[in-house]
Write a structure and sequence with these properties.
The chain is mostly helical and about 180 residues long. It has a domain of about 25 residues. The radius of gyration is 35 Å and the shape is extended.
């Protein structure tokens, strides 16, 4: 009798846990909650001062690392201007690194890579070409343009909305066992 009660209580407990949805898994930390992108702050992070002799910040004072409203508007309207590097000449080490990297890539590098990738695409084996020589029909349904145009004209003449009625589609014939051979 006690075993029956134990099984009954456990099954009721599991049933109640199953009805709780994802609350139980969230309670035990089994689900991963993605961070809320709207809670991300736009303020610059705090940084440690180089020495501790600095005076404490004044409440309401402008932070030195924050942009002015004009700079924020410029960053919003022209993000490339903000991302552009300042016009500082390269150091000798940077110049040596650029020289060691070699000449820059040609302007049409994307086209060259695409053409080479197209050449590298393997062709279909002979057995596939013999067995599946016909191209597969395109997926989805095709609207019959002649009948659809007539339906739209008829709806316009009757003063009905263009959505009224069924859209005529092209019905594909069912393929027989040997119909693809000839």
């Amino acid at each position: 009798m006690n075993a029956i009660r134990l099984v009954l209580v456990m099954s009721l407990g599991f049933g109640a846990a199953a009805c709780s949805g994802d609350e139980l898994t969230r309670t035990f930390g089994l689900t991963r909650d993605a961070p809320d992108e709207f809670q991300v702050t736009t303020r610059a992070p705090l940084s440690m001062p180089p020495d501790m002799t600095l005076r404490p910040p004044r409440p309401g004072a402008v932070r030195p690392q924050e942009l002015t409203q004009r700079q924020q508007a410029e960053a919003t309207l022209t993000p490339d201007a903000v991302m552009a590097q300042p016009s500082v000449p390269n150091t000798p080490g940077q110049q040596a690194l650029v020289a060691a990297a070699g000449r820059p890539a040609p302007a049409d590098i994307r086209n060259r890579v695409d053409n080479e990738a197209a050449l590298d695409t393997p062709s279909r084996p002979l057995t596939d070409r013999l067995l599946f020589w016909q191209a597969a029909p395109p997926p989805g349904t095709q609207v019959d343009p002649v009948r659809e145009s007539a339906r739209l004209r008829q709806n316009a003449a009757l003063g009905q909305s263009p959505e009224a009625g069924d859209t005529p589609i092209i019905q594909r014939r069912r393929q027989g066992l040997f119909s693809g051979l000839f």
